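User: I'm curious whether this sequence folds into something compact or stays loose and floppy. Could you predict its structure so I can see for myself?
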Amino acid sequence: MPLLTTLANGSARGFGLGAGSAGYWQGGEVTETIVRPSGGTAYYGTSVDLNEDSTYAIVGAPLNTVGWAYIYSVSGTTFTQQAAINGGSNSGSYQNGDNFGNAVAISGDGAVAVMGAPGYDISINTLNTGDAYVFERSGTTWTQRARLGTTRLSTDQDLNDFFGNAVDIDEDGTYVVVSANSDDGNDTGGSGPGAIYACGPYSGSSYSSGKITASDGVDGDSFGYDVAISGNGSYIIVGSPLKAVSGLGIAGGVYIYERTGSNFSAANETIIDNPVPASADYFGRSVDINYDGTWAAIGGYGDDDAASGAGAVFVYKRTGSSWTQQAKLVADDAAVNDGLGVSTGGIQISNDGTKIVVGAWGDDPGGAAYIFERTGESWKQTRKLTASDATAGDQYAHGLQGGVSISDDGETILIGASREDGGAGDPTSNRGCVYLYNK
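Assistant: Here's the prediction. I'll summarize afterward.
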């Protein structure tokens, strides 16, 4: 069973308030519940996700031996573990370093979950091919629905593809998306442009799988570093943060794919390059899209507008098939190297597109998360979240080392801190924990 600590906190204990019009998260008391794993789990909280009404949560601990994913039912602030999963069917070939749980996602209805294992080795000479698994719930029991690595063509399973680096799932598990951000497409094992795999619709027994690559991709773009699918399963957003734009390296770009039939085989592609490119902006390092594919949130943790390396969030809105920038968001207290929007799993937007939570791993002492809310077409920061027990190096809200998630209704937030050291009385190095926030 997880270990719980619940604290009622106001702005005086690390919950800074943002300027601007009132929002759900602005003002008032917030309850913080700290959930720590029992046993010797390490790097717990690297990845996290909540379902639509925050009644289910999934937490990844990929550096704990082969890697684990933990699934909980949640009632208020009580976490009840339903499953601890460290790989599915794999012919007994899982090994330390497979990073199972590196990325996790749970469907809106809380009945289906997907876990990535980008370090999985298909053979002793083909390392880091990667894999991904889908599990489904019946009552309180979770069983494997699909192993997605086997849906790829054998000729496409290659050295250092990192299939499973990022994953996402729609409202009911009909569609799943998995990235292989170093896929090179020619079996050389080099750092290729990257690819994603749009899996679905689910037939009742298996997922079809379609490989998607950027129409203008080049080696080293890291297409698929982060990926998300809309709740209705119609749109996929893909980050390509190492893409050069206007001759500027690592400026970054994003791709949005609109499904036109039952699958993504003939999807329409929209390319959104960094609108104000600069070298090392990492635009697209973190991405998310809301339920109906109307609003998209894009992190660029290297953006220097507020301060060097302070980071920024870019908000785009779709009208018909056209996407336009609506806002560029920076933290009210932005500082050098805060890294707002730093990494995979480090940003999420609510179902209705009115709330964004995003991590800033470099905020002192151990990281922070910022909440931005929309009234009409106007976005404002409404709250800053920090851990009540923050210490340097916790990786709170880091993204790839401490995920963030907001429930689809926008009223509950879950944040990982994979290098948190176990709390008072249990100073286990890098044990990790997650923080649940309710208002």
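Summary: The first strand starts at residue 3 and ends at 9. The two ends are 25 Å apart (CA to CA).
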